[in-house]
């Protein structure tokens, strides 16, 4: 079991018997479970259900598992996916893995193998959430910069020295130094390399 108590696992399969069997297995091992008989039903509840991973059948009527995966990727609604398939289709499994699936398992799936895959998916989810929280915090710190500090940052990450930045902005070198100190304090990043890395992640464009 993960560090989090009773994480919620989504199960998506048009086979009612499979949903019951997997739901029983996961609940026995302490997981909360949400079941869906189609990708469309999953999407209706996905945003509110706070599921930590989804066990997803590949072949279903209408929107299949790969289409659901593509939609989630396109809309940046990241969730670790474990695919299940009634047959070992190598091209489909390759597509699923290239698109970010945790793993691709063939039915009937071994219980221990599935539980190990879920543990891996939950670890991936924790990592993803940690990265998103880090980015949200960094984005919040960036928003604390004044307009002039943002201008100085854009010049700093382009590699310009203080004197050139001062000349471009029409201020003194000392003023540029003060702005840089404020940028470092507000962003909590002491090095230029760190500023460049953070700016790249946030989409800040270096000044020309």
TrEMBL record:
Positions of modified residues (4-aspartylphosphate): 57
InterPro entries: CheY-like_superfamily, Sig_transdc_resp-reg_C-effctor, Sig_transdc_resp-reg_receiver, Tscrpt_reg_LuxR_C, WH-like_DNA-bd_sf
rRNA processing among keywords: no
Name of protein: LuxR family two component transcriptional regulator
Keywords tagged on the record: DNA-binding, Phosphoprotein, Transcription, Transcription regulation
HTH luxR-type domain ranges (all copies): 138-203
GO molecular function term, any single one: DNA binding
Top-rank taxon: Bacteria
Organism per entry: Roseimicrobium gellanilyticum
Domain Response regulatory span(s) in chain numbering: 8-122
GO biological process: phosphorelay signal transduction system; regulation of DNA-templated transcription
